[in-house]
Amino acid sequence: MLFEQFVFKKVFVSNKQFVFNILLGHNKAAHSPLLVIMDIPSKILETAVNEIATLPGVGKRSALRYALHLLDTSDSDFAAFIGALTRLKSDTHYCSRCHCISDTPLCPICSSPKRNQKIICVVENIQEVMAIENTGRYNGLYHVLGGVISPLDGIGIGDLTISQLIDRVAAEQTEEVILALPTTMEGDTTNIYIDRQLKQFPDLKVTTIARGIAIGDNLEYADEITLGRSIVNRVPFGVI
Predict the structure, then answer these.
(1) What pLDDT does 229 receive?
(2) What Cα–Cα distance (Å) separates residue 107 from each residue in 71, 77, 95, 100, 115?
(3) Predicted model pTM
(4) Are 91 and 82 in contact (CB under 8 A)?
(5) Domains (ranges, CATH) in the chain?
(6) Dihedrals φ, ψ of 38, to 5°?
């Protein structure tokens, strides 16, 4: 016998008498998902909610909360917010050298005399540049590919900045290229392709970031590939 429980809750947001009819349907046989029905009385507000909901990780309820917050802000704060988004689109650049986001044609990392100009760390996207920089352990340059080779997603070699990387290595007499791409099939495929392209530089050192057991993990929960690589690429205890 199917059992369904319907719970309706009224949620009042920002003193606007908006009612969310939240239908919590639990069907033991079909395992029905959570359904949310929102009645928005303003078409303008609904349009704003729909646009905000296109952002990654933002659902309709969160989008409505953000839209109502913006609606309640002062005109000056709202203008500052919109201005920041406008400048984000119109005034930011992609570094002409490493293709990272910058306020200037050449990013601060590439233009810094304190960075090691002979080492290039190849990454998939800008978030990975930030992640490595946050470690405080790397002092070289970067090269952002803008993705990895993934035919299923329609991303081919020509969609990435691989040819620009090869040109950089040749022009800048790079001594080492560090491949810091994701440990996925697509990432490994891209690594292999780049490595083959770089073999034309016999004096170039091509390395990849270490892969192994994360700090705090138990060996019994590690997959065979990760554990195997950790054993093969073991290091002296004193350097840990």
Answers:
(1) 78
(2) 36, 29, 5, 7, 12
(3) 0.74
(4) no
(5) 20-89 (1.10.8.420), 108-209 (3.40.1360.10)
(6) -120, 125
Q: DSSP states of the chain as a string?
A: ------------BTTB---EEEE----TTT-PPPEEEE--S-HHHHHHHHHHTTSTT--HHHHHHHHHHHHHS-HHHHHHHHHHHHHHHHH-EE-TTT--EESSSS-HHHH-TTS-TTEEEEESSHHHHHHHHHHT---SEEEE-SS--BGGGTB-GGGSSHHHHHHHHHHHT-SEEEE---SSHHHHHHHHHHHHHHTT-TT-EEEE----PPTT--GGGS-HHHHHHHHHT---GGG-
Per-residue pLDDT reduced to its tens digit, 204-223: 999 998 887 777 777 777 77
CA distances from 227 to 182, 207, 218, 222, 232 (A): 17, 20, 11, 6, 9
49: closest CA among 38, 64, 34, 39? 64
Q: Is the pLDDT at 102 greater than 90, yes or no?
A: yes
Token digits of residue 75? 């005109």
| CB atoms closer than 10 angstroms to residue 188 | 16
How far is the C-alpha of 189 from the C-alpha of 157, rounded, in Å?
11
